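User: I've been trying to design a sequence by hand for this structure and keep getting stuck. Would you show me what you'd pick, starting by listing the structure so we're on the same page?

Assistant: Good idea, let's start from the same input. This is the structure you sent:
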């Protein structure tokens, strides 16, 4: 398998960080910044440092949530995309919906993803040509009709709360049997890959929030659409579903 070494490296790095975050879950958290709807913890930065130290020997450029301005792709056709703690606010409030997310992109397409749900001791991972797994069990998407499907979504940091966008949100969510908001885009996509839910949709989300989940969902048989909204800030609109007919409904 082409990306086996990188997959194992990412799994080891995510597991290492997951153990540290799990150990500190019930401890007092230090906030670095809290601006608007965004929250950064000291542990976000420490987790990033561990992951970067593990990935750096590959000499593949690294785009990380905690230091995106340092990203220099150069002429590389590959790059890592890292979210050391997706769901920081959940983690801060001791809500157990948060994870470590590491992806590898090639030619701007996700080819490898690892998501470690450290509080539940679960790992989702997958790669092109390798398939997708929840722990050691193969996973695949399920194709359900929209009236029987569950949608995962959310209100991202850059959500536009205009009347038009709010109406669009309601029109889309009303098509589904159920709607869930987990506070972690990465876990939402892992649930698409493992057929716990059927579709993920979020406009104005950040690339590192969805990168690994898209790779895993793709390896599990899902289809996705990703449109770049702001390339300088890595803001994207994303829809991912097990049933391609759901993509056309959004």
């Amino acid at each position: 398998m082409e990306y086996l070494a990188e997959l194992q490296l990412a799994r080891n790095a995510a597991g290492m960080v997951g153990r540290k975050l799990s150990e500190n879950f019930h401890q007092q958290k230090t906030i670095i910044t809290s601006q608007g709807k965004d929250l950064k913890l000291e542990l976000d930065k420490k987790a990033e440092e561990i992951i970067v130290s593990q990935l750096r020997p590959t000499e593949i450029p690294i785009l990380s949530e905690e230091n995106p301005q340092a990203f220099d792709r150069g002429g590389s056709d590959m790059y890592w995309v890292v979210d050391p703690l997706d769901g920081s606010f959940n983690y801060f409030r001791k809500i157990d919906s948060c994870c470590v997310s590491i992806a590898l992109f090639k030619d701007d397409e996700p080819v490898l993803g690892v998501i470690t749900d450290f509080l539940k001791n679960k790992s989702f991972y997958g790669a092109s040509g390798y398939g997708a797994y929840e722990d050691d069990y193969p996973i695949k998407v399920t194709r359900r009709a929209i009236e029987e499907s569950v949608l995962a979504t959310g209100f991202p940091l850059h959500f536009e709360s205009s009347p038009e966008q709010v109406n669009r949100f309601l029109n889309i969510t009303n098509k589904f049997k159920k709607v869930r908001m987990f506070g972690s885009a990465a876990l939402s996509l892992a649930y698409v890959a493992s057929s716990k839910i059927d579709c993920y949709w979020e406009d104005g989300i950040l690339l590192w929030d969805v990168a690994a989940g898209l790779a895993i969902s793709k390896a599990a048989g899902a289809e996705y659409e990703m449109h770049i909204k702001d390339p300088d800030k890595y803001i994207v609109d994303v829809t991912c579903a097990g049933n391609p007919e759901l993509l056309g409904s959004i």
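That's my pick for every position. To get oriented when you compare it with your attempt: Helices lie at 4-23, 42-55, 88-92, 163-173, 185-193, 207-219, 244-247. The chain has two domains: 4-139, 146-247.
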